Fold these 2 entries.
Entry 1:
Amino acid sequence: MSLIKLVPDQLEVEVDSGTNLLEAVVEAGINLKAVCGGSGTCGKCQVIIEEGEAEVLDQGNLSSDKLERGYVLACKTEVKGDLIVKIPPESRLSKHQVFIEEEVDKREDILTEEELAATQKLKLDPIYRQIELELNQPSLTDNVSDLERLQIELNRDRDLSSLQASLPVMKDLASHLRENDCKTQVSLSKLGDNYEITELKSLDDPKVDYGLAVDIGTTTVVVELVDLATGKVAAREGSYNKQANYGDDVISRINFVKENEGGLAKLNQAVIGTMNSLIDEIVSQQGIEQSQIKTAVLAGNTTMIHLLLEIDPNNIRLEPYIPTVSFVPPLRAKELNLKIKEDGLIHCLPGVSSFVGGDISSGTLAAEIADRDGITLFIDIGTNGELVLGNKEWLMTCSCSAGPAFEGGGITYGMRAMSGAIEIFDIDPKTYEVKYSTIGDVPPIGICGSGLINLLALLKDVGIIGRSGKFDEELEHERLRDGEYDKEFVLVWADDAGIEEDIVISENDIKNLLRSKGAVYAGIRMMLNSMALTEEFIDQVLIAGGFGNYINLDDALKIGLLPDLPLDKFKFIGNTSLKGARMSLLSEDKFEEVQEIAKKMTYLELSAENYSQDFMDEFVSAQFIPHTDLNLFPSVTGK
Ligand code: FES
């Protein structure tokens, strides 16, 4: 065994010789950035070996200066003896900025006014509900069984044609009815097209029944505790998904499963562990029992759902991109080891394809796209970009492989929206001096997505880069220099940074950003083209996801990420995946509607033969700022 000491945290862990250093650090309790899932390509998991013996399998693209200072890629280093390892701040995965978490702290009422209005609009008819009943007393002339008596009464004014009872209910039924003088509260759970009688309670039982709405994002997991009798949200907690230790986007996580023995179980435990920690927090905060949480509705992308169910997701990334399951039958909490009532039903909202999952069906429901005459463009930019276009007549969707650049992936100093991330820049057009502000007002350690979009727009505005994203060849300034691999512009000098080096944006970073924004815009164009529509037909643009809450619309239009439409057509609508899960929990109609949405949505596979060339053409044109066709951006270009 080797002893690994981690500084400055003063944590220790004992591991077998030969253990991967990234795994050892995670085991010690420090979460490292591991954007590429340990394939050695992202360079984000850098640590410094201060003392001891380790075998470096691959140096990746670490600069010679860093190598001399003892830097290694943790994912490509094996422990060979006792070690002292320093974890630099830029390599840490610190608390993610979860939009709604902040809201919870500030508001007495957890829901925003709009969310509250949407919830109030719902006809409260939860998929797990209590019904109070008084049964006829049995007699020699009324001698049907207790269960039939219960079923008859349940069906008296309702249409619950297909009712079944769980074994624990049948075992308890006789004594429960006799002890309570045939007065009871019956819990009914939706189970496919049937209803299950899941619990019997006396009329004076004071315990409140709760349900969970969960958004399982690739980056963030958010759990909401909902009072099923009133529809009120009692608590909401969010944190980053612990799977982030094994890769930033779905493809790196699938690769991790493929390349590591036991990888599937690790990712499964990571997401279940994330959800259970959030449930623990909520349960102790609210002073309730786990068994009071009776059911859960989960919304997640297709890969997240496969990993949650411990189903190998490999085919998701292999042509023809077929998921194992899109419509997941209801499951029991104990099957997933989820810390709610043991036999509580877990409902995963249905997906459409390998790259358009239940989070998007849920978002489409929450955004009420299928209720409107006008055409809505729905955009969810997270670690990938998913789009929906449609109205009450038709719905179309696509995934545009935007990649994780807007969450910092593939960008040298890119990072998620965490403390120390620069979110706003200002560049003097004459002196090129750079000002910035960071999340948490601390010295900068990187740039988050909204900061990158703002930066791209500014670099173009002041002429440091041209429309193709290349640095101006004529420009001479100390901030513009040849970096180790390509040209770079210094944004923050090391003396002012929270890390021991200059923070720069390289030409390759800009290329990656242009690819991402080009993919989103090309996806929008492809959907419009396939319906023979143009931008003017779009009635509203709804931007979902945490990322949407931070981007500056002007900047997003300037760089050509979004279509050039009047600003009042755009609306940020927050975490629609979570909202849709809550709506499905509280309303059986909405639960049915989201199934219909997933069935009805036409999926546009952009890599299919009949679309791929058109998509490539659109994609190439959209990799300019704002586009090769300036007529598409009249307000930006003045054309
Ligand atoms: Fe180590 Fe990417 S280089 S996780």
Entry 2:
Amino acid sequence: MTSAVPVICVDGPSGAGKGTLSQHLASALSWHLLDSGALYRVVGYACRQANVALDDETAVAQMARALNVEFQPGEKGVTVWLSAQDVTAGIRSEAGGRDASRVAALPRVRAALLLRQQELARTPGLIADGRDMGTVVFPDAPLKIFLTASAEARAERRFHQLQGMGESVSLARLLDDIQERDARDEARAVSPLVPAEDAVVIDSTTLSADEVAQAVRELADGRNLLSDASE
Ligand code: DC
């Protein structure tokens, strides 16, 4: 299933720097990128648009199965298309994150997205960003990173990110949201947010994005995952 193609899993809570690290690695190594959080965000968004209740597991799972989503990498990042609609900004809002966390707690929704995610493991390799990449989706991956940071540091990073997107939010509210979402992601019965047993845990609270990327590249190199072309 996944064994022939190398996969680097980047799991961890919201705001730990997974997206930045994953995009850096994918572009530095010229590997494919799976932003699994965006998939859950698109499912939540599609349900809202279609007036599907986010706790109607059968209907939400049906939306997840039928999802016509495309990720288009570009100079300013990845554009996310839902059918012919650009939903990039819509899914990245705080409300989009809350909706994603709710639909992600439904086992049949997770099952509906499993194969879609595994199919993205293609040569020369895949960087898989999420919560359960190392525990469920790619259990045989040769390198699993669990990237974490204090809730305060994560709230502050998110605060600056949202400010950059023109969304005004309070830092205290963000911290509450992050703690609430962590609790839901960690406590859910299916695929809870926990490091895989063989994951390398990196705490990015006091590390720069470059320092984190360098540490992961060294780990990948130590496991012979970097071909000559990608070094
Ligand atoms: O990484 P993100 O903030 O875009 O994720 C949005 C939500 O989706 C988050 O609350 C957790 C959930 N998620 C998940 O349950 N499993 C994944 N592999 C990725 C995200």
